[in-house]
Amino acid sequence: MKTIRLLVLTWFILAFGVDEGKSQRVDPSLRNSDFTFALGGDALITRKLSVYKEPKFLELIELIRGADAAFVNLEMLFHDYEPYPMHQSGGTWTRADPALIHDFVWAGFDMVSRANNHTGDYGVEGMRLTTRYVKEAGLVHAGVGESLAEAREAKFLETAKGRVALISMASTFPDHSRAGRTRGDTKPRPGLNPLRYSTVETVTSDQFSEFQAVLEDLDIRFTNPSEDQLRVFGSTFAIGDQRTVVTTPDPVDLEEIAAVVRNAKRLADHVIVTIHAHESGDARSEPAGFLPIFARAMVDAGATMFVGHGPHVLRGIEIYKDKPIFYSLGDFVFQNETLDRLPDENYRALGLASDNHVADFNDARYNMGTTGFPANREIWEAVVAMPRFRDGKLMEVMLQPIDLGFGTEAWERGRPFIAEGELANKILDDLIQRSEPFGTHIEIRNGVGFIRIR
To answer: How far from 442 is each of 104, 153, 160, 272, 336, CA to CA, in Å?
Structure first.
């Protein structure tokens, strides 16, 4: 049998002139050409995208399809309600029809992150079912696994122009969603890749003394790690010149994730490190203090770019050592008001009864659309970032403003369109203002933003 196979292979090579060595090589001209990414923010999908034909929607889809690799944060679970909802969620228990995952493939996306505050909404089974549907759709995904080691792993996309690694984590999550280790005597805990952080609230000396005295009077137990610090209710308070909040990435998590990045850098042409982080500074549009520390450490470890998402608004952009750091790109798809079902806990928290349904929940949660997400214009304004590389070096970043339909009906808003005119300039002006603290200059040309590097 082996002799016959060898004769057939020899005939095929002679007949068609196949050079087995050359057929395995990537065309050098492709590797040396520009490599463009399309990067989206949060994607909470509950309705089909592929049925719509508006020109400004399809123009955006073609932009994504034209990239060499496209990424979005998949903030949705896919199942048919086989699992039960957990006692805690990421805010709303998210779930969509498994068929909708194919709309991301239709739109041109190749890679999705999975670590976010909704990963564990329907427990481990919900996570596993989502993994199954995402894999069947052919999307590269990272950030979850059957153990902490697997959740931390880089996953790889193969393209004609090079290999791309994706490493996903979250700093915002219910604790039951966090993956864990094993010592060999128990099974590891499935879940997401966590980046934990510590928080120290600084108060004046007088405030510190008064606070400590109140705790003692009320017989509330606390600890003193040092003379100028106390810990209570899971928080640390320290004496300082003024009232501040300082957050710092967990050193163990940082180093373990950095090790994954260093490994991925030696196995791929590009490394995307992405985080889901709601935590903010003084405003929702400002990243918490631990995020720039962590993002720069990931670039130092070998990340080609750092992509943040989670707050559902735009945050600034930093160019650090010629690598882009996007602290938040806002939303790409935001359809959290058209979920099919919600668990009893969601309704009862708002005083609703068993004869109330999703629309009633939305009206109660958002006070008939006058508060929360529907009333906040910035939730519905975002960008798709398109960094372009040549020979591994960042050349420029194009920033396409998108409009998700602020002020339209709940069943209409949440789908992205190319933003134009005053709205496009407004979105870019917001991004310019938020990027100034990082020393980033964004130029507006015909309603599109550009960061020139070279």
So the answer is: 29, 34, 31, 22, 31
Lowest mean pLDDT among 28-32, 82-86, 157-161: 28-32
Boundaries of domain holding 214: 198-239
Copy the structure tokens of residue 87: 């006692």
Q: CA 60 to CA 108: how far, in whole Å?
A: 10
pLDDT in the model for residue 189: 97
pTM of the complete model: 0.91
Tell me which residue has tokens 């939303």: 331
Q: What is the DSSP secondary structure assignment for residue 188, as one 8-state letter? A: P
Short-list 108, 106, 90, CA closest to 44:
90
Measure the CA–CA gap between 291 and 275, rounded to whole angstroms. Answer: 9
Give percent of the chain above pLDDT 70: 93
Q: What is the pLDDT of residues 222-256, one digit of tens each?
A: 998 888 899 998 789 999 888 889 999 999 999 99
DSSP 311: S
Question: Cα separations (Å) of 7 from 3, 10, 15, 76, 130?
Answer: 6, 5, 12, 52, 46
User: Do 53 and 85 fall into the same domain?
Assistant: yes
As for how many domains the chain has, the answer is: 2
- Together in a domain, 85 and 181: yes
Tens of pLDDT, residue by residue over 159-210, are 999 999 999 999 999 999 999 999 999 999 999 999 999 999 999 998 989 9
Strand partners, 199: 247
Burial label for 199, CB within 10 Å (0-12, 13-18, 19+), is middle
Spatial strand order of the sheet with 305-309 comes to: 155-159, 162-170, 270-276, 305-309, 323-326, 317-320
Examine residue 366 and state whether it is found in any structural domain, yes or no. no
